[in-house]
Amino acid sequence: MKKPWAGRFAGKTSKIAEAFTESISFDKRLWRYDIEGSIAHAMMLGRQGIIPHKDSAKIITGLKSIAKGIEAGKFKFSEELEDIHMNIEAALVKKTGAAGKKLHTARSRNDQVALDLRLYLRDETKGIISLIKNLQKTILSMAEKHSSVIMPGYTHLQRAQPVLLSHYLLAYIEMLQRDRNRFEDALKRINILPLGSCALSGTTLPIDRAYTAKLLGFEGISENSMDAVSDRDFAIEFLADAAILIMHLSRLAEELILWSTEEFSFIELPDAFTTGSSIMPQKKNPDVAELIRGKTGRVYGNLLSLLTIMKGLPLSYNRDMQEDKVPVFDTTDTVKACLTVLAQMLPEIKFNKEKMHGAAEKAYSTATDIAEYLAKKRIPFREAHEVTGKIVLYCIKNKKELKGLSIDEFKKFSSAIDKDIYSRIRAGDSIKAKTSRGGTAPSEVKKQIKRLKQVIK
Amino acid sequence: MKKPWAGRFAGKTSKIAEAFTESISFDKRLWRYDIEGSIAHAMMLGRQGIIPHKDSAKIITGLKSIAKGIEAGKFKFSEELEDIHMNIEAALVKKTGAAGKKLHTARSRNDQVALDLRLYLRDETKGIISLIKNLQKTILSMAEKHSSVIMPGYTHLQRAQPVLLSHYLLAYIEMLQRDRNRFEDALKRINILPLGSCALSGTTLPIDRAYTAKLLGFEGISENSMDAVSDRDFAIEFLADAAILIMHLSRLAEELILWSTEEFSFIELPDAFTTGSSIMPQKKNPDVAELIRGKTGRVYGNLLSLLTIMKGLPLSYNRDMQEDKVPVFDTTDTVKACLTVLAQMLPEIKFNKEKMHGAAEKAYSTATDIAEYLAKKRIPFREAHEVTGKIVLYCIKNKKELKGLSIDEFKKFSSAIDKDIYSRIRAGDSIKAKTSRGGTAPSEVKKQIKRLKQVIK
Amino acid sequence: MKKPWAGRFAGKTSKIAEAFTESISFDKRLWRYDIEGSIAHAMMLGRQGIIPHKDSAKIITGLKSIAKGIEAGKFKFSEELEDIHMNIEAALVKKTGAAGKKLHTARSRNDQVALDLRLYLRDETKGIISLIKNLQKTILSMAEKHSSVIMPGYTHLQRAQPVLLSHYLLAYIEMLQRDRNRFEDALKRINILPLGSCALSGTTLPIDRAYTAKLLGFEGISENSMDAVSDRDFAIEFLADAAILIMHLSRLAEELILWSTEEFSFIELPDAFTTGSSIMPQKKNPDVAELIRGKTGRVYGNLLSLLTIMKGLPLSYNRDMQEDKVPVFDTTDTVKACLTVLAQMLPEIKFNKEKMHGAAEKAYSTATDIAEYLAKKRIPFREAHEVTGKIVLYCIKNKKELKGLSIDEFKKFSSAIDKDIYSRIRAGDSIKAKTSRGGTAPSEVKKQIKRLKQVIK
Amino acid sequence: MKKPWAGRFAGKTSKIAEAFTESISFDKRLWRYDIEGSIAHAMMLGRQGIIPHKDSAKIITGLKSIAKGIEAGKFKFSEELEDIHMNIEAALVKKTGAAGKKLHTARSRNDQVALDLRLYLRDETKGIISLIKNLQKTILSMAEKHSSVIMPGYTHLQRAQPVLLSHYLLAYIEMLQRDRNRFEDALKRINILPLGSCALSGTTLPIDRAYTAKLLGFEGISENSMDAVSDRDFAIEFLADAAILIMHLSRLAEELILWSTEEFSFIELPDAFTTGSSIMPQKKNPDVAELIRGKTGRVYGNLLSLLTIMKGLPLSYNRDMQEDKVPVFDTTDTVKACLTVLAQMLPEIKFNKEKMHGAAEKAYSTATDIAEYLAKKRIPFREAHEVTGKIVLYCIKNKKELKGLSIDEFKKFSSAIDKDIYSRIRAGDSIKAKTSRGGTAPSEVKKQIKRLKQVIK
Q1: Cβ contact (<8 Å) for C435 and D314?
Q2: How far apart are alpha carbons C44 and C107 in whole angstroms?
Q3: Is C156 in the active site?
Q4: What confidence tens digit (pLDDT) does each residue in B275-306 have?
Q5: Can you point out the beta strands (E) in A87-214?
Q6: Are C278 and B371 a contacting pair at CB < 8 A?
Q7: Which of A44, A70, A105 is the last residue of a domain?
Q8: Active site residues of A
């Protein structure tokens, strides 16, 4: 087969080189966007009189029919034709003859592939935003449902202070909200039309880029043709946002894994989302959570791949940039799968309320409340902190819980302690009193739930 | 020295552990922000009656005097006191006694360090945005100054089409503009008050976070205390933005290195920004550009570091997060140094206009113009492309340039070619005709310069 | 379909979870190794009397027949059966009934998958070593063929000193030799039998691991069952070695790209390994070299992925580790493709000897030779260096080459310079005199070629 | 101050460029190696008659005196003199006049810096190997000391099968042994003399590289001068080995963190290696372990940095490579600190044997033993596995432990079960029976301890 670019070539392409340089095996996934972009381009060419109206119409009909063929699984992709752009163009020429040969007027593969990737990422980014929203809603329902569950909050994975399970869950909604905002910010930079930059310097033909942008729903138009074909920022930014997102999911996954250990026993994962062992009949493994945690490596790797690819590349288009697709595709697939499976699995989790509450009552997790109790009584916080530390040490040595101390024992440490101390050191009391903005008090958590319902709509 | 947190501890800290866990050797750089935050916190505590006004005043005076001491280089930082927070608090207690011991009321190091890092990154991000703007202005002046210089535009590092040097320079302004926008978007998420989240669950004391936020100029307040002390998204986002920025600079650096080779000879770098060889007396090396390219590795590494650190961490604060500072500090230093040195060096570069223009005239770089010429004459672009390819092949075989072909030679390839072809195939003519939006035509470049003057103000 | 591990499970696996956790879509590539391992395992089980000989024989026949089926493309892989291990086992049970159900005795998927991956990587590593050797031989032939070609050696991409093209080529053979050695070292750690570690703690059955190891050609046996199923060092080490290897290839690729620019024009790439442009008919792009450079990002990303996955994982097997396969497979494919295409392309490159030699004669590239000439005349090297620097500056100002200076001009800079200077400052003379070990003198290069012929056999 | 390389330069170096390009602020750490290398070089120059013996002697005396000055903290490092090499040479010239100016004969900073870094990394690698050995010995003592402690082995962080604590500890010795082997392999490639490669092409002077190599204790000599100054493989390989090492440590750290939670309560960390909270008086945090886990990010980042730096660099030396030092230095510091602190902390850990053993008895962790029991009775393993799964399910539903089942209950699931089952399902019995090579049986663990004592000597 003759290559469309082979006018000046005397020798043939080596089969090995052909297999090495082809991208059709992975960029065929872009077919829908390639056709969408070509239709808009053809409409513009016709409208501007760059090609006859008749040819424009033929092209559009031809492309639509190719789209149907691909959708129906009837299209034969050829490695010899290198990429999705040339596969489709060749099919179009076959269908429409001379008309099809006019489609590539005022266009280059350089701006075409940038267009396709932007259209793809615009769709995917919107899809991911929507999946994030969905996951947020799922978590929000859980927070509402489990509004009375008390659990230990941890720092350094040591029980630190009691919190509401709802409060803990809302923390993830906050993280996801930042993820959404980041993807929305990225979308502003993704949603820019590069087409019309041609190879790198624009064209001598009277194209109307604003019209093409309008047809394709772009909010902006690239303003420098060299930049437009050299730029993969939008893809890197997307990958960075995805890396932060999956980092968040990896944290949640880690906690699901911890909480479903025998030792924690805070939750039971649904059978439908766990697997067994091929040798140990008793096992029930948190595979989904583990895989989400593991897939973090994949997304980080993809981000680093594209950053590495773009390092030190001179302007404008270089073939290295063909390597942008695999990490982008792999990331969209991975992130979407993780968001989807989590939203399905989370509501099925059974929380072991007694266990969680019990854990929150222990480990002196309301010691800070004693320190703040003393601070309210005008004891400098540092002293209050030290006094409380000594109380804890006394408890450990004597194997007592804080609420198990008599008032006399308390008073040995500070005369400022009175009987009202007992209404401060139960987990539930501690939580109720944490009414500072963003704190874990039920009243505050309720406010946050109300606010978040608006935010994540 | 007694640790402020040592109430419950019986044993002493190992010296090796102390050296291993200390952060004062690097986080002392945060002193200004730590004090700024503590002053605001003390004002709030006083105003809310959580501590007496008198103590609040003493604390503020004390902190200001400590700030002066540090500024004057008189403050002694102690490794035993672990970090900047405890170093300053210990000094304050020394100065103010019981008053100082009240500063840490309704606060934890967990929210304090998050505050300090946010204040630091807010300043640094603004500083970087301003340095980007400065570099953009520098490049814009160059684009205006060299508005008539013609050079070859490259794809695959092969001469592709002639462009204006100005057009090429504007491509970098576009990239930098996206960098600015990304940093500005990041700033929205950096500029959030975490203080008042305390250890992880808020406080029982009647703090007023909105007041503290106002004092410190924050635009938002974190809404979930667990999230607030667990969150390092803002730092990762900053690092990702920095990675994209330095990737841009690495591309510019690559081209400066290429252009200053004997082979390209497009530019001469100023003596003041190059160095010589310890063995080869004739050398003049583009060290600054090479180092910028090399420092890309450093910033990428920093981004990966923090992503790795945060992977799979359970909520809320974990000591791993102390490792956030070195990559962040190293990145701000690196990025600022690169932006600064580039803005100094670029205007001193001498462009070898003849060489650049000469290169643009060769290598058949206006072949696309012939193809578009034919397309305008209704020859389907694919055919036009092939015809032109054959013309080029003919030129190569006969060692001719396009403009060296006679009209008869042209007509052998296509009867559609007329004498007006000669006004299309000189680099200058080609450029003039590329009037599509974002194209390299002088008229379009002028428009872009005008627009950018507004944008980067 | 009933899961083989589902004895204790009441609920069914969710379809979404099944799709999320399956690995058959990518680990089916391990089928050959899975069967090879199972056959050895069955032989051992039979020999040890753990299962009846008859059953062992049935299993082996069954597995061989399955292998044939897969080879012939007739085997149906099922996502429901999760992975390659269970797909094959299920087929075996179908074929052999109760016998097949005995295969998994004294084995777990944990040690089985470790076995398969080691067998796979052993083969691939050997294959890569062989491809490296092949590439070394190719380059060595080129070095012999082009033994008289002189070119400029560069530092900082500035012409520094003349060297032989052969000498330059040998540098890459050295790099590749280190790559080989690293892969050979890795092989020592890959080629270890993990089977028999079972889930994590060994087995109560009287297995003979040494026999299995012998059957499978392993040189060592893992000595700790928990480590054996937790360990992916061998894969990370492989990925790190691959990262260094492709970094080397990226450097070669960079130089091929540079050298095939119009500006350098040192080489012409064969038509068979370049491609054209869809819009610019005159272009001939070094795509293969660019893609090799770009694929560096992919391999770096893969290394980082697996490092990230393994970070902080508690012993022993965790499902995260299933994510090891995609980066490993992608790396073996990538590295092998790059080595193969390079070995094909390199011998087809045409070197433009005149251009290379001409470049070496210019840019004062023998200035160091003057400095060493003076040093031999007992002028302290630093002074000699400075004197030469002044000569170069004089040449630049007066637009002369070194060999164009008269002896009087030379003597103005140092009376120590005599007429014999003229036999030192031509590129060829300079090269001939660099006879230090590892230097670029033809005599030394010849020695190295002879040595390398032995080394890379 | 005049730059030693400034012969041909007319303009002065910009202060900003000077600050940007200097490396003395970090490479001064190499002073010892720089001087060691220079002394060997001077000896060789004298011996070969390249410089007079007298001068050689003067240089050596001068360098030794400079070394003393640096050691005593009296040496003034100057940023203007860029790097450690020029700082020391300038001081030498000051001390010895013309003699000092002869030191740089037949040498370039390109081979000098490669030499220094190799000498540095040789020392550091040996130091790290020795620290690994030390940590192995520490763990081995622990394994011997706690030889009777039973704990649950985990897969998927679910209790899987009982193992000996000793067995678990030996797993880490295996990992560390591979680390040692990898560093030893790296040492073969580090311990190569690059000096004598000069700028990139060797020298015309009659140097004796073998003699220099002997003086400096190198085991090999680089065989290609261009490769020698371009090569940073040895540093990347070191970083990759360090990344795998710290990954191992991060896994141990993770488990220390888990085990010191209230929930696990398997261990108590020594007060001397934990810290408290500034707000929560009861906290005792596993900071050392958390920081080790966190520092993994730093080492991964360093590896990626250097890989990124070297990607696509043309031969030979480029200034980018100056950026190799910070990641290398940071990694040696980090890894050594982690190994040291761990070796100190581990022996101080108190194991809660009852808790560990108790956990091992629960969660049906000997279910596999039942399956293997049945397999021995010729029930196909897959059926045995399923039967056991049903037994477990029955236990869960009826809230029983395996050993709490009556023989009749057992027999309901399989008639093959006899009373001897009770001697298989206690954790201790299970462990004792796992006598396969590398298994957890005390007899096997004892063998391994004996073997390891030889191995890690």
Answers
A1: no
A2: 12
A3: yes
A4: 876 566 666 899 999 999 999 999 999 999 99
A5: 150-155, 158-164, 192-193
A6: no
A7: A105
A8: 156, 277
